[in-house]
Amino acid sequence: MDDSSARKFQKDLNGGLVALVLLSVLDGADSELYGYEIAKRLQRAAEREPLFKEGTVYPVLRSLSASGLLSSRVEPSLAGPPRKYYRITTAGRAVLGEWRAIWEQTRDFVDRFTLEGKPS
């Protein structure tokens, strides 16, 4: 597989995972987080190159907020532009539970073929 097809596969795969990961990060946070802070957490968690580019995070955060899965507030910053802080909502936690179950089911199904070679 050449590099361009690998990049396309990774991009397609990540498209559905960003929202799940962002909800999970905010669910595990002790307090509100702003976008750059979230992006840096993802970067630190990556063993190699982060799966998500920083620029990918912001539109997904806005979408999750518009869907009511996150609440947000803007606060002025002395160190630069205003910061938008996010917190997961009750609805976001419910959706996260559903998405985690779907992810686990999908992961297990794919693993049966890719790790074991043949489905049972």
Descriptive notes:
The chain has helices spanning 3-15, 18-28, 35-45, 54-66, 90-114; strands at 33-34, 70-77, 80-88. The protein has one domain: Winged helix-like DNA-binding domain superfamily/Winged helix DNA-binding domain (Arc Repressor Mutant, subunit A, Orthogonal Bundle), CATH 1.10.10. Helix 2 crosses helix 4 (54-66) and helix 3 (35-45) crosses helix 4. Strand 2 (70-77) and strand 3 (80-88) form a beta hairpin. It is α+β, with helices and mostly antiparallel strands. It has a 3-stranded antiparallel β-sheet. It is globular, with a radius of gyration of 16 Å. The two termini are 27 Å apart. The mean pLDDT is 90.
Could you tell me the number of beta strands? 3
CATH architecture: Orthogonal Bundle
Unreliable segments of 5+ consecutive residues: none
CATH topology name, in short, is Arc Repressor Mutant, subunit A
Q: Give me the side-by-side strand order of the main sheet.
A: 1-3-2
N to C succession of SSEs: HHEHHEEH
Given the structure, what is the number of helices? 5
The biggest beta sheet, please? 3 strands, antiparallel
Query: What is the radius of gyration computed over CA atoms, rounded to a whole number of angstroms?
Result: 16 Å
- Let me know the average pLDDT: 90
Total number of domains:
1
Distance between the termini: 27 Å
Strand content range: 15-25%
CATH class: Mainly Alpha
CATH superfamily: Winged helix-like DNA-binding domain superfamily/Winged helix DNA-binding domain
